[in-house]
Amino acid sequence: MAHLHDILAISQEITRRGCTILNLADGKVSWSAQQHRNLGLKYGSVEPSIAALIERILPDERHLLLEAFEHCVLSGTCFVLELRAQWQDGGDHVLRVCGHRVAGDSYERTWFACATVDITDQRRLHDQLLPACCDLEHAQEIAHLGTWTADARTGIVETSSPEAYRIFSMHQDSLPIRLEDLNRRIDPGDLERVVAARERAFTVPGERYNCQYRAVHAHDDVRHVHSLADVTTDAAGSPLRMVGVIQDITEIRHAQQEIQRLAFFDDTTVLPNRVAMRQRLEALLGAPGPAMPVALLIVELPSFREINLTLGHVNADTLLGDVARRVAGMLDADMHLSRTGNAQFTVIVQGSQTQDAARIANAIATAFETTFAIAGVHYDIGAYVGTAVAPLHAREATELLRKADVAVHQARKNGRSCMVYSADDDPYDPARLALLGQFRSAISDGQIELYCQPKVSMATGAVLGVEALVRWRHPERGMVPPAEFVPLIESSELIHALTRHMLQESVRQSLAWRQEGLSLPIAVNLSTRNLNGGNLASDLQALLADCGGTPDWIGLEITESSLIVNPGASIAELNTLSRLGFQLYIDDFGTGYSSLSYLSTLPVDVIKIDHGFTSNMLSDKRAASIVKATIGLAHELGMAVVAEGTASREIRDALLAYGCDEAQGYYVAPPLPACEFAQWVRTREMHH
């Protein structure tokens, strides 16, 4: 027995478990040596008793132990308490106290056993870790992230993460959760994929379980979750546990869907936007295999801006929604309708239906013949539809879009509701646009040359002056036709640099001729932008002053069309130039859109009849009548007349008979390099 007593004492010392035994029959109490140590007492220093045990507990918790003792002795109910105790040296400790009533061998004598464990270090560690655990739980709650483990053999899932329970839609007091239980929470549409991914992780070494799926909670609440886990193995490589995290990504998924919607859909009409249309078009055109025909229809609403400005954005947005619904109702399910601009919709038609693209375009245009009700009032909106077809017109999305844009532009320009792309109607060549970029350096590199076309007297044949013409000698392409670059330059701010260069060259050339005894004015063409720039008159004066020139050296040619953009500013600038002494010409007369009333207010000296009339006057009586009437009108207003396009002696003779003053055209001479003009004049004078 002594030997067993020693073994028990050593065991208690190792496990730090002390023991109190109360004989309920005679009231005797005994403490083990470890019990003394747990109470901070030297062995034998205190007579063991229940009272002495209770005295070690802090006063405000003693009643808990006393009540537990009494209840256990009377009813036999076991108890476990964690109580604060104070040793004689003043140190604070925490004891775990367990009580149990034990029946004796004869069932007459009963014992009460009470064990204590000093858990001060564990409690201190717990208190230190508690804030970190709380922070971790809080962080997991914020991130909707939980941790879990699953036993590879039993499939039992364990977790101490409240967030994991919430994501699993399980209560923390649930019976042991197994992977099969979680499977019942997975959306049936995702279950097979999830189980397969889990099995691969268990069976394929190094395979990580990585799966996103939908979890169905109570009341059919669907949550999107993302689960990641690794499998731990034993020394033999057999799987032991799956350790992982699970995150509720529902809000992330909704945010992604919203970003997707904002990126690829139009808020007003809920139709795909230009980005989505472009992606679909590129996918269709880039699909492997034989090229599948694709038709692209662009629908433009010409009066939408007026509706927007007149009725406001709210009513305009309502109109766009009505337009979208009307057009969508006419299309088959596999046709793609999108809103690709403020007042623009696009339809993609693919496959065999491409043959019906023209019919579909006409049907869409016809649908706009029915008015739209906006704020209780019916409005006639109208639409233009342009169509381009791949691979007939283009093989790439960018080019197909461009050509559909050209088609709708031509429809609008020609007043036709529908047009299919035609290369003959396409004045927009990307290569020409590239020239615009090259032109910036062409002036400084000396590629721009001055050519001159002479004007002669109808009556005497004497040379009276020249028109300055621009020519571009491109280092790679050679001489670039003016029609390919002049319209582009006129539509950009580069026109100011070009006009300045032409004026500089004309003044320089005029000075050179005068030094040779040739005093002829050079007429330079001006654009709308030049007239509205504000510095033309002062720039001209400065150029002439630098070389001692006078305004009679330079004439200025304008077109009727250049006056209609800002007629007030243009006429004011022309009046300034006229007062300074510059001779003013109206070029291409009869082709513009100005009123004849402008002729009574413009300070114009010369009218130049457009070659379109002069070249046809011998075969077209109406053209001849217009030429004759123009000459008479100009003379009545005190203006001289130059006939452009004088291409033959017969035309020259007819013009002379009508009283025309000057001739310009290939019958007189083609455009000549400025450096060759003086010699041409001398040669002409020798033969006249």
From TrEMBL:
Residues forming the GGDEF domain are 292-424
Question: Where is each EAL domain found?
Answer: 432-685
**Domain PAC span(s) in chain numbering:** 209-261
Which PROSITE patterns does this UniProt record tie to the protein?
EAL, GGDEF, PAC
Please give the SMART domains that the UniProt record associates with this protein: EAL (SM00052), GGDEF (SM00267), PAC (SM00086)
Q: Which InterPro entries match?
A: Biofilm_reg_signaling (IPR052155), EAL_dom (IPR001633), EAL_sf (IPR035919), GGDEF_dom (IPR000160), Nucleotide_cyclase (IPR029787), PAC (IPR001610), PAS-assoc_C (IPR000700), PAS-like_dom_sf (IPR035965)
Superkingdom in the source lineage:
Bacteria
CDD domains, per database record: EAL (cd01948), GGDEF (cd01949)
Matching Pfam families: EAL (PF00563), GGDEF (PF00990), PAS_3 (PF08447)
Cross-referenced NCBIfam families, in alphabetical order?
A: GGDEF (TIGR00254)
Q: Which PANTHER family match?
A: BIOFILM ARCHITECTURE MAINTENANCE PROTEIN MBAA, DIGUANYLATE CYCLASE DGCP
Q: What is this protein called?
A: EAL domain-containing protein
